[in-house]
Design brief:
Layout (H helix, E strand, L loop, with lengths): L12 E6 L6 H6 L4 E6 L11 E5 L2 E2 L2 H4 L2 H4 L10 H5 L3 E2 L8 E3 L5 E5 L10 H7 L8 H7 L5 H6 L1 H14 L7 H16 L7 H11 L8
Antiparallel strand pairs: 1-2, 3-7, 4-6, 5-6
GO biological process, one term: small GTPase-mediated signal transduction
GO cellular component, one term: plasma membrane
InterPro entries: C2_DOCK-type_domain, C2_domain_sf, DOCK, TPR_DOCK
Amino acid sequence: QIAVPIEDVHRTHLRFTFRHRSSSDSKDRSERIFSMAFVRLMRPDGTTLRDGEHDLVLYKGDSKKLEDASVYLSLPSERNLSESKLLSGSSFRVSGATSVLAVSARDSFQISTLVCSTKLTQNVNLLGLLKWRSKPSLLCGNLQKLMNVDGGEVIKFLQDTLDALFSIMMEHSETDVYDTLVFDALVFIVGLVADRKFQHFNTVLEAYIRQHFSATLAYK
């Protein structure tokens, strides 16, 4: 279990290094790294690392280069991102690096991850709605796509999602373009909370209505 402060997640990655084991603890500590794999916690689209198994690329080369993030971070970390290159056993040369990091084609390394967060989502459609102000031109599409987001992911961000929906209504009170879409989204969310699987979130919704709801222009 690794706890990462929310403000550091965007620039954090996990590095897995491999050394030889010996019968001597002191010798173990002095052994150089012979292979390395890494994975970023954030994806380029702003979502977090997906839950589940990841087939990571194992790199071999100079041990100092294997520990130098500036050398390997520009390379692919998962096999399915560059399958054709990896199957050929190619070496990747990083610009500015004096040595080559080669893919260890005969070895494999899999990890299984589970991200626990109420601030970072794994769903790009939900992220688009929560950050709707950054791309207002996509707002209609993001509202429609909310209904396709996994219910558990929406429930996890219940207050943030409701805040976004009411903010949209407040900031577009002069037009009815988004009214029906927001209304449909609210019905979808209430329907989720009514589902037996998420019924323990009923108290969260009640608390939101009583303590947090303050969208006067959306009250009706």
